[in-house]
Amino acid sequence: MLSSSYPPVATPAAALQLHLVPAGRRLDFEILPNYFAYVYRRQNQNEWQCVARNACSPYFDHSPVPATSQPEYMVCYCDAAGTTKAATAIAATPPATFPASHRAA
């Protein structure tokens, strides 16, 4: 689990795009050679949670989102030893734009 002050570094070469799709949220990110992509999510400024390890792009998050939540995402890139070498900027979408079918009660 990451602290709320994470990420350690953001690189412009590692861009993250968040799209709302009927199935939930789609994250598009670069696959960096020789690195593993870890997708992290947090809601309401809580702790970061890893939702995918060695993720592929695009990554789809199908989990319900509470109506009062503004989920944020970032991707960290780790080497084979598990050391974080880079991270994307944080991507977020205001909760009002989420389709009703993807909000939790």
Let me know the average pLDDT: 82
Largest sheet: 5 strands, antiparallel
Order of helices and strands: EEEEEEEEEE
How many structural units, i.e. domains? 1
Determine and state the CATH class. Mainly Beta
Envelope shape: globular
Helix content: under 10%
Structural class: mainly beta
Strand-residue proportion: 35-45%
CATH architecture: Sandwich
Instruction: Assign the CATH topology.
Output: Immunoglobulin-like
- Tell me the number of helical segments per DSSP (H or I, 4 or more residues long): 0
List keywords for this structure.
single chain; 105 residues; mainly beta; Immunoglobulin-like; 5-stranded antiparallel β-sheet; 3-stranded antiparallel β-sheet; 10 strands; globular
Structure in a nutshell:
This protein is an all-beta fold and 105 residues long. It has strands at 16-21, 24-29, 36-42, 49-52, 59-61, 65-66, 72-78, 84-87, 91-92, 103-104.
Question: What does this protein structure show overall?
Answer:
By secondary structure, this protein is an all-beta fold. It has one domain: Sandwich (Immunoglobulin-like). Helix content is 0%, strand content 41%. The protein contains no helices and 10 strands. Strands 3, 4, 7, 8 and 9 form a 5-stranded antiparallel beta sheet that branches. β3 and β4 form a beta hairpin. The chain is globular, with a radius of gyration of 13 Å. About 6% of the residues have low confidence.
